[in-house]
Amino acid sequence: MEIRPTTDEDLDVFVDTLHAAFGRFPETPTEGGGGVWWSALEMDRNLLAMTADGRPVGTAGAYSFELTLPGEILAPAAGVSAVGVLPSHRRQGVLSSMMRHQLAELRARGEFLSVLLASESPIYGRFGYGPATYTQRLTVPRHQAAFAVPRARGTAGAPTSGSDTGSVELLRRAECGGILEEVYDRYRRAQPGALSRPHRWWALGAGQPPVSPAPRYVAVHRDADGVPDGYASYSIGESDTLTVDETIATDDAVSTALARFVLGHDLVTQVVFKHVPPEDPLRRQLVDFRAGQVNDDTDWLWVRLLNVPRALTARGWFMDGELVLDVDDPFLGEHGRYLLTIRDSKADCVLTDRAPDLSLDVRDLGSIYLGGTAPSTLVRAGHVRAHRPGAAALADALFRAERPPHCLHWF
């Protein structure tokens, strides 16, 4: 079997092989080749697995993204996607060969972070990826959508939150592509765990709504000066269910205003928010806490560190301290013990022979990297070993982010 890079001439073969791996048929592109997810493929970053007689049996791709790290730091990250093996060639080492080849290529490019969305959660842990952000689907019956009066009050006796001096304008998706792109870019630069959406994704409509040109209504929030600072993309389907693809807001007041807008929609039986951070305050803003029903609580972005010292020194930190991490990477057959020293929000990470505070798999380091998974949780789960009392608590404090990481982008 041969693993080879692709060129633009391989696009049809790549797409057909991937769809066959998942038992699906390709959609029909819109005029100009856009409107389908694969129009944003970077063919110089993709791989084909070929049999000895030249038949394609597997695919693996990667996109060029920026990942927002704790501290509002933007770092390049390879977005692994379009991974599939034909049913006739599964469990024969094809996937492992492609993953090993791809990781070597990413390192050769100088990349130190790789991310993906896992179609099946048991698959990618063995290649060193760990779940790092989480998301929920929240359903609110329309007749239980009343908001409570905020109880916190300021020094002047006025509520400290929930007030909004902006406005909401209703547009169609085709009317506001530029607004969506601009607002999302502002949002993702400040949100740990968020990924960039390159301009070509928006221009080609490559992805899921609202990136794709699928018909949607968009509630656009503008601040007091008329500048767009949030949006909610939605559609109404069967059983009069209003489904929100995503809500993007630059602060909590904007998020609340958009939630009020969609929850106040007439002739709707329920509102489904497809992507809500686990710590989102919406349920607690309702008069009836139980009205916010969590239908799906799942992982989203998985992270893999390709270079431990570079990755740990790239992100921001919020307290001083030292930690010795003994990191095992069984898939690549690597092992390293690192002294992580944090002073004044900056980290230094070097090899050391000091006794470890924590021993962990590289997949577990990926899970805690963005601050969305507490190291102590993985200690309690039996995946991370704490070698001294207090080590897990110290790691929890060091790895926390300024706010929980969240990712909305589908790729």
Automatic annotation (TrEMBL):
<comment type="subunit">
    <text>Homohexamer; trimer of dimers.</text>
</comment>
<feature type="domain" description="N-acetyltransferase">
    <location>
        <begin position="1"/>
        <end position="198"/>
    </location>
</feature>
<feature type="active site" description="Proton acceptor; via carboxylate">
    <location>
        <position position="411"/>
    </location>
</feature>
<dbReference type="InterPro" id="IPR051554">
    <property type="entry name" value="Acetyltransferase_Eis"/>
</dbReference>
<feature type="binding site">
    <location>
        <begin position="91"/>
        <end position="96"/>
    </location>
    <ligand>
        <name>acetyl-CoA</name>
    </ligand>
</feature>
<keyword id="KW-0808">Transferase</keyword>
<dbReference type="Pfam" id="PF17668">
    <property type="entry name" value="Acetyltransf_17"/>
</dbReference>
<dbReference type="Pfam" id="PF13530">
    <property type="entry name" value="SCP2_2"/>
</dbReference>
<dbReference type="Pfam" id="PF13527">
    <property type="entry name" value="Acetyltransf_9"/>
</dbReference>
<protein>
    <submittedName>
        <fullName>GNAT family N-acetyltransferase</fullName>
    </submittedName>
</protein>
<dbReference type="InterPro" id="IPR000182">
    <property type="entry name" value="GNAT_dom"/>
</dbReference>
<feature type="active site" description="Proton donor">
    <location>
        <position position="124"/>
    </location>
</feature>
<keyword id="KW-0012">Acyltransferase</keyword>
<dbReference type="InterPro" id="IPR041380">
    <property type="entry name" value="Acetyltransf_17"/>
</dbReference>
<dbReference type="InterPro" id="IPR025559">
    <property type="entry name" value="Eis_dom"/>
</dbReference>
<feature type="binding site">
    <location>
        <begin position="83"/>
        <end position="85"/>
    </location>
    <ligand>
        <name>acetyl-CoA</name>
    </ligand>
</feature>
<dbReference type="InterPro" id="IPR022902">
    <property type="entry name" value="NAcTrfase_Eis"/>
</dbReference>
<dbReference type="InterPro" id="IPR016181">
    <property type="entry name" value="Acyl_CoA_acyltransferase"/>
</dbReference>
<comment type="similarity">
    <text>Belongs to the acetyltransferase Eis family.</text>
</comment>
<dbReference type="InterPro" id="IPR036527">
    <property type="entry name" value="SCP2_sterol-bd_dom_sf"/>
</dbReference>
<feature type="binding site">
    <location>
        <begin position="119"/>
        <end position="120"/>
    </location>
    <ligand>
        <name>acetyl-CoA</name>
    </ligand>
</feature>
